[in-house]
Structures are given as structure tokens and as C-alpha cells.
Amino acid sequence: MSEAALEEVFVLSSIYCGEGEFRVLQQSAEDGLVVQINCCSGEDSRQSVMFHLHPSYPSSPPDISISSTGFSRTQCHAIRQKLLDRAAVLTPEPMLHQLVEDFQHCVELTKDLREGEDRLKESERVEEWTEVLLLDHIRSRNRYIGLLEHWSQQLQLAGRLLLGQNILVILQGERRNIKEFCHRLKTVKVDVDSSGKKCKERMMKVLLEVPSSSTFRNSLQGFIVNNYQSLSELTAVFQELNMAQVYQQVLPSLNG
């Protein structure tokens, strides 16, 4: 092990001098030196980077391993790969300090990404959304409506099916469940075509997708089918549901 490498390790031990921050795990002339640096990225998350410095270091880059109590195995592997790629392009001189800084930067980026994903999942799980769908046709009425009712129950969605010149479905519930409802519409054979063959609802359109406002949150209960004969009757349904604003947004997409 070169004097420069030993000096670098000594400097690092002085920088990371807090309790449990820096550890020498192994040191021998044959196998080189193994050091570990620990850092915290939160009250319940601890990350560690371990460097194995071979006797030829820094002529050859160190081996690196990452562990964490808060990150997934995939995230740890991604951080490790970034550090290995970084070490491969650095000049063959003591590089641990640079790699530790890169490690801390990667930890912060991963933490921010994870928190952003957690916030998104939480908002989709908790926040109620309202979506209005336009269907192309319903020929096999009993089968089609039966599936819509079954899916709404399975996915804990409230809905209103409006049958008239335009076929509309209003849904309320968790956003991810509404997305699954729409996915099933386009991938499951729910109806029959003009020749009587079973078909999927490929022509379904999403007319509106918004977080439910306080004026019409929880305005739907169960899954109800309504028939309407005129635009005025359709307007009345939306007004009954306190969704006049929603109706004004979807009206330009309707026929007649």
C-alpha cells in the first residue's frame, strides 16, 4: 500500500470522525485495506459505502459496495455502479475523498427521488379524483353494464352511467383505481361489434380527469345507470350531482 494511500485514509478518518462514521475493517500487506464510511440521510435511514483498496491502489481503482437501511437493493446497486464508473475515469491517484463526495451526492438524489415517488403514491392513494369517460357504443347492454358495475365494486369506485345520444361514465375514487378501470375497458372484450363479434372498448375517450373539488366530492354513491332523452336532461343530471362546472368542461366534446 502506497504512502499516499495510507495518508488519504488517515485524512478521511480525521474528516469523518463522528461516532461510527469511519471504520477500518481490514488491513494487510497481501489483501490491502478495507474501509467503511457511514452516513445518515434521515432519522430512520443509514447508508454505508465500503472501499476495498488493493495493494496496487491507487494504480487500480477500489472495489466498492453499498448498503442501506432505507434504500432498495436496486437503488444501492445503481449508486454502486455510478461510483465504479466514476472511479474508472479518475486519474490513478488517491480518489477516496472524491468518491465519498460522489456517494453523498448520490444518496441525496436517491432520497429526494424516493420522497417524490412516495408523495405521488400518497396523493394518488388518498386524494379522490373525478373522471368523465365517453364510450363509443353499448350493444350488448346487459353484459357491458354488468362488467362496469362489477369493476366499480372491485375497484371501490362510485360511478354513474349516462345513456343517451352520448354514452358517458362518471367515476369517483382513487386515481390508480380509475386508471385500472380505464385499462380494463380497453383490454377486455366488453361488448360486441356490428357483426356480433366480441370487442374491446378501443374508442373510449377520457374527457376530463381532475381531483374532486369540495363542491362535488363524494357526490356519487354506488354505480347507477341513468337514461336521458335530451341535452337538458343530461344537464340536469350533472346539476343534481353538483357537477355543473364539470359539465361545462365536457360539453364541447359531446355530440348534439
TrEMBL record:
Keywords of this entry: Cytoplasm, Nucleus
GO cellular component: cytoplasm; nucleus
GO biological process: positive regulation of hypoxia-inducible factor-1alpha signaling pathway; positive regulation of protein sumoylation
Keyword Amino-acid biosynthesis among UniProt keywords: no
Cellular localization per UniProt: Cytoplasm; Nucleus
InterPro entries xrefs: RWD_dom, RWDD3, UBQ-conjugating_enzyme/RWD
Pfam families, alphabetized: RWD
Domain RWD, chain residue ranges per copy: 7-110
PANTHER family: RWD DOMAIN-CONTAINING PROTEIN 3
Name the record gives this protein: RWD domain-containing protein 3
Organism: Austrofundulus limnaeus
Native organism taxonomy: Eukaryota, Metazoa, Chordata, Craniata, Vertebrata
